[in-house]
Structures are given as C-alpha cells and as structure tokens.
Amino acid sequence: MTANQAKVISYPQDKAHSSTTPLPKEKHSDLDFLDTLAQDQGHMERLRSRLDSCMAEISMARTNNNWQQIIDLFYPLEEKEPELTALGLETPVRAELAFALSHAGKPEQSITQYHKCIKAQPDNFFFASGLAYVLYDMVYSTKNRERILPPQQKAQYIEKAHKYFAKAQELRPEGVTNYYRQGMLYKNIQNMDLKAAPLFRKAIENWEAYDAQTREKRHQEYKNYVKSLYNLASCLLKQKRAGEALSLLEKCIRLDEDKNYVKAEHKFFALGKVHFELGRFDEARKDLEFAANCTDPRNGDYIYELWARVWLGKEKPMEALQVLSKIPEKFRRQFVRWTEGDCYAALQDFAKARQTWIKSLERDRRSRHRALIRLARLEFKMDNFDQCQKYAEESTKFHFDTYGTPDPDGLLWAAAACIRRHDKDRALEHINDLKAFKPNFPMLGKLIEVFEKTF
Q1: Which of 367, 299, 296, 380 has the alpha carbon at shortest distance from 338?
Q2: What pLDDT is recorded for position 146?
Q3: pLDDT for res 124
Q4: pLDDT tens across 61-92, in order?
Q5: 233 and 270 Cβ atoms separated by less than 8 Å
Q6: Do 172 and 127 form a contact (C-beta atoms < 8 A)?
Q7: Which terminus of the chain has fewer CB atoms gathered within 10 Å of its CB, N or C?
Q8: What's the CA angle centered on 113, arms 107 and 117, to 5 degrees?
Q9: Best CATH choice for the domain 365-455 from the list 1.20.1090.10, 1.25.40.10, 3.20.20.30, 3.30.70.920
Q10: Residue ranges of the alpha helices (H) in 293-366?
Q11: 422's torsion region: left (phi>0), alpha (psi -120 to 50) or beta?
Q12: Given this model, what pLDDT does residue 5 score?
C-alpha cells in the first residue's frame, strides 16, 4: 500500500475527534429515532410482532369488508400505534388504513394516508395505484353529482390522478387497470377522447399479450379489459371510425355475454349507434329494440330517441313517433324533443314541430342552439326570413356566451336569411365571421357562391 493510499483510508487525527462529543438532541431531528433503534433487540422483536398482529387484525376485518373496524383500530395511526410510527414500521398498516378510509367514504383522509405511504416508499406500485384510484373516484363522483368540488380543487385532483396513474404504469407497464382508469378520466371527465383512446388500446394489448397462466393470476383485470374494448369503440365512433368500432363492440359483446361487466343496454345501444352510422338501419333497429327491452323508458330515453331516428332514416316518421311515445311525457329530455319535432316536420306538421322545439327551450340552459337552429331552418323553409334571422342570431349569441365561440350553423342560417332579405352588408358580416371562425366549414363555399350570385 502506498503512503497516499494509506492517507486516504486512515482515521482522522485527534483534532477531528472533537466531533464525537454528543450533540444536544435538538440539533439532530432524527436523534429520538436513532436512540429508539439502538434499544435492545428484544424491543425491536416486540415491535415487529406487534406489526404482524396489526396486519392479522386488518386481514380479518378486510375479509368481512369491515372498513370501519380498521378505522376504529388504527386511525389516527400516530396516536393508535406511536411506537410503530416512531420507527417508520407503520407503512403497511397505513396503506391498509388508506384503503379502508377510501371504502368507508372518507377519501380526503385516505389521500393524506397514501401521500405518507408514498413519501416512505416512492416506488411502491400499490401506493401509486391506490392514490390514483382515490383521486379518480373523487372526481368521478362529481360527474354523478354525488359530490361537489370547487373547480380549482377538481382540476388539482385530476392533475394528481394523472401523475400517479403514470407512476403506476411506469412501475407496471404490463398492467391493464391503470391504463383503463386513466382512459376513463380523459374520456368521461375531461372529454378528451383522443387522449383516452391510446390508453384503452394499451390496456387491450396488454391483456391480449398475457399467456394463460398470467391471465389466471390477473383475472381481476379481465373486466377492465372488456370495458376497454367498449370504451375504445366509443372513442373511435366519435372519430367517425365506425368500422373499427364495430369489430371492437362485437368482441366485447361476445366476451361479456355471461358476465355483463358492461350493461347489456349500453352494449347494444352502442352497437345500434354504430350500425346507424354505417347506414344499416335494419340492424340498428334490432340492436336498439333489444337494448330498450333491457331498461325502463324513463331511464333509457336515449335508446328510444336513437331508435326513433332510425325510423326517420327509413322515412317512417309515424313509427318514430310511436317509439318516442313510450317515454312518459315528463321524462322526455331536450334531445328527445328535438327528434320529436323532427318527426312532426317530416310529417309536414310544421306548427306542431315549431311548438315542440319552442317547448324544448323552456328548461334548456346548455344546448338551446340545437333547437334554435331547427327553428331557424323551419322558418327559412316557410319563407319567414326575419324570424329565421332572429333564431339564427340568437343561437350564435347563446353559443358564444355559453361556450366562448359562435355557432357556425347559426352564422350560416343568419347569412342565408340576410341574403333572402337582400341585406347585403349584414349577410357579408355573417359570412366573414364564419370565414374567420371556421374557414373549413363544409357549406361555406356554397354559401359564398349564393351570395355572389345574389349581389
């Protein structure tokens, strides 16, 4: 060994030994922990035995879904098990407590406990996945109106849920459930189908890559595989990719025939919607009739409404009205009224169509423009151009006030009414607004042609 090497590994000289003088306890924040750790081995063994006893108690309560018993025994953990907490041995108990709190309807407390678990073990899959789920469930409950969250807090929960779903996926990239749940967060809470679709697709690919042994081991994830098939089909249908959606739905229905992880009325409604988009009206009618038989018309009005539109597609408005009549009057939502009005218009009963659409405006605070555009189109057809312009401009204003953008259909019909009224300046104003807001609007070119021919 060289002299230099000896210097490197040699002990400090006597001067340096001044650091061995005991420091006051307040200068070492973890001194109590170290002192406790240095106690006799028998003490540590007793604490480990206590931890085993805690986990056994939890296991028994969990078997019976007795979440409150777990909470009563261990919450708050710092008070109920101070010695375990002092040594940092409490994390397994804390994780079970977090799980129990979430199941007992106490998500805020559960979130706090999961954060402490993650601080102790940042790369624990179960902690990241558990916290992501509680945050996701909190936000999802606002959609069902079970809970009210301030917008800023809701946005924070969504952001954190995405963070911990991503962490769980990083720790177990071959999983299914966390991809499915994050997809649902994007799709049903944030209305971001383009971001949801790849997550559902990943969940599907992962399950289908499992061998028989892995599928048996992870059988609890199968239901989320089936739900991913359904939800990916829904995303693709919104992207006008009905052919791809059809094959996914058919697979979902075949695999879910016995379990019904996705309700039958939802699966067959979706199938009917795909067949409707593909113009296969007879198949769509059968799908929707089956779906309708699975639910009460008061809860399944959306099924009957699409069923009616299938009949309209077959140019049979009377049959469409008969389907809608199955929905009790007071349970007919606005979109049902729109289609009901469409039926009357197809029967040339314009007065009844107008009355139905006007009635739908009475309680509509989010989608008034749909009825207003129908009214504008009807008044144009009846040569009531002043009234057409009124409805169209009202639709444009409503859409702007509600969503921050003008209604392109409103601008179209407002311009059309002004052209027929020979109001060149006002017509040009609406056309220019449409150009600026939606330059690729499908009928903009034809509208400009009519304007130039007229003036």
Answers
A1: 367
A2: 81
A3: 98
A4: 999 999 999 999 999 999 999 999 988 999 99
A5: yes
A6: no
A7: N
A8: 135
A9: 1.25.40.10
A10: 301-313, 317-324, 334-346, 350-360
A11: left
A12: 45
In which residue ranges of the chain is pLDDT below 50?
Answer: 1-21, 23, 25-29, 31
Tokens 């070119």 belong to which residue?
A: 445
For residues 110 and 101, the answer to whether their CB atoms sit within 8 Å is: yes
Total number of residues shown for the chain: 455
Domain boundaries of the chain, sorted by first residue: 54-172, 365-455
In tens, the pLDDT along 254-290 reads 999 999 999 999 999 999 999 999 999 999 999 999 9
Question: What integer pLDDT is reported at residue 36 of this predicted model?
Answer: 60
Contacts with 45 (C-beta within 8 Å, 6 or more apart), sequence order: none
Look at residue 279 and give its three-state secondary structure: coil
311 closest CA partner among 339, 349, 352: 339
Residue type, 52: D
The full DSSP string for 233-259 is HHHHHHTT-HHHHHHHHHHHHHHTTTT
- Exposed, middle or buried: residue 99 (CB in 10 Å: 0-12, 13-18, 19+)? buried
Helix (H) or strand (E) holding 60: helix 41-63
54-172: what fold? 1.25.40
Instruction: Please compute Rg for the chain using Cα positions.
Output: 32
Q: Are 81 and 58 in contact (CB under 8 A)?
A: no
Q: Residue 87: what pLDDT? A: 87
pLDDT of res. 344 = 98
Q: And the tokens for 187? A: 């799709």
CA–CA gap between residue 124 and residue 128 (Å, rounded): 7
Q: Is 316 left (phi over 0), alpha (psi -120 to 50) or beta?
A: beta
